[in-house]
Amino acid sequence: MLSTIKIVLVETTHPGNIGAVARAMKNMKMHNLWLVAPKTFPSADATSRASGADDVLAGATVCATLQEAVADCQLVIGTSARGRTISWPEITPRECAEKVLINEPGNTVAIVFGRESSGLKNHELDLCHFLLRIPCNSEYSSLNIAAAVQVVCYELFVASGLAPQEEILVGDKGEEPLATAAQMESFYIHMAEALTDIGFMHPAKSKSIMRRLRRIYNRVQLDTKELDILRGILRMSQGHKRNNDD
Ligand code: SAH
């Protein structure tokens, strides 16, 4: 259960931090590490700081973009030390663990950590359903990335002891699976195209509208059936516009 949760690090600068993250994960029985465009990896510094969690480093998946890392995920949680001008729905590490393992189990999950210097960018948070903030000293709120991973993985580890057994998690509620990040991306591309086609949105001004629309849909966590319905509506409105233009 814990082993499937992806810990994703975006553009980590110091390889030692990658090793320390691997160690923090293994302490909490977690192994699924993804590295998005790390500055230096593999590296002796990472191996040394992993202190025996070399298997986590060896099994890490390196990829070029955050989109790739979360493409198959149904729940994506970004982490940040600071609030944002557009607010994302915020959760604590404990709420995150409850959501992932107890309230909504059975989803493919990614928890995303940002750069040491500047955290996650807003366009990366656009891919996230929730923003996790570790409550701490408001005047000194930025933890070392491995310390942040440790706190989050600890809460997951504790909650996993309280979670229902794995066999009864998958498909037991007869519900449609949640849409993955890749399916949501195609939906947003389709929506931008349709809103432009029907004259609601000008491509030059689409950025902030699309960001707000993403936030609405990320908040409700669409399942695949609901996504099909919405895409049907988009297709029909595009066809309607074309017919009216003829
Ligand atoms: N200066 C950066 C902080 C980066 S710390 C900024 O302003 O965002 C590196 C990463 O550790 C962050 O991107 C986040 O993923 C994680 N992190 C650090 N402190 C955190 C906190 N209080 N809550 C949640 N995540 C935190």
Description:
By secondary structure, the protein is α/β, with parallel strands linked by helices. 47% of the residues lie in helices and 11% in strands. It has helices at 15-27, 44-50, 54-58, 66-70, 93-103, 122-125, 145-160, 181-197, 206-220, 224-245, and strands spanning 6-10, 33-36, 61-63, 75-79, 90-91, 109-113, 130-132. The protein is built from 10 helices and 7 strands. The protein folds into 2 domains: 2-167, 3-Layer(aba) Sandwich (Alpha/beta knot); 181-245, Helicase, Ruva Protein, domain 3. Helix 1 (15-27) links the parallel strand 1 (6-10) and strand 2. Residues 79-82, 113-114, 116, 118-120, 132-134, 136, 141-143, 145, 148 line the site of S-adenosyl-L-homocysteine.
Order of helices and strands: EHEHHEHEEHEHEHHHH
Uncertain spans: none
Mean pLDDT: 92
| DSSP strand tally | 7
CATH topology of the largest domain: Alpha/beta knot
Characterize the overall form: elongated
Strand content: 5-15%
Features:
246 residues, alpha/beta, Alpha/beta knot, Helicase, Ruva Protein, domain 3, 2 domains, seven-stranded parallel sheet, binds S-adenosyl-L-homocysteine
Task: Describe the structure concisely for a colleague.
47% of the residues lie in helices and 11% in strands.
